[in-house]
Amino acid sequence: MEKKSTIVRNIAIGVAVGAAVTMLKKDNREKIAGNVRKARTKVNEMREGSITLKDRVVDGVHDLGAKSREMAELKAVKEKLEEIKKLTPAVVETLKETRDIFNKKKQELLEREEAQTDVVPEAAAPEEVPAPAATEDTAEAEGLMQPVLAVEEAAEPVLETNTEATEEEMKQTV
To answer: Where would you find the membrane-spanning parts of this chain (predicted)?
Structure first.
């Protein structure tokens, strides 16, 4: 036990002598004094500053958590976008079918309207001829077609992009 105590004592003496020899040079004394001043200033700033190191770490952890939540939300949005891209051709096809049905109905209404105007008796004055009821149906059909046409126009670029991507995938698999 006494041997360990002697070793520790001798090491401490060696360190003290080495520090004393180092301090003999003026440059070393100035560098050490400058470093001590800088360290003292930093310690005072951290002690007096409104934001401590602990607060900085806590803020960093909160920021990291917020960023990870944003990334999770972006991942969910990306997955939804992929799903929408896959469903777009079916939606566009449905819209085209709907447009065709509306066009057929509109055509039928116009034909019915023309047929009713052809059946009007010649003896009746033009002022007394009642307006055909099909006019309201035609206006209603045209009004219903506007949103369908707008959605179809908006979906065309996405469909074209999807078609190009699908063609590239098919080429790669072949």
So the answer is: 6-24
Closest Cα partner for 112 from 129, 136, 148, 76? 136
**Structural domain contains residue 155:** yes
> What's the whole-number mean pLDDT along residues 58-64?
90
Q: What is the pLDDT of residues 122-167, one digit of tens each?
A: 544 455 545 445 455 555 556 666 666 666 666 666 555 555 555 5
CB of 138 within 8 A of CB of 110? yes
**Residue 58 falls inside a structural domain:** no
Global pTM value: 0.29
* Domain residue limits at 159: 80-119+131-174
Q: Is residue 126 part of a domain?
A: no
> At a CB cut-off of 8 Å and minimum separation 6, what does 85 contact?
158, 162, 165
Question: 105 is written with which tokens?
Answer: 């109905």
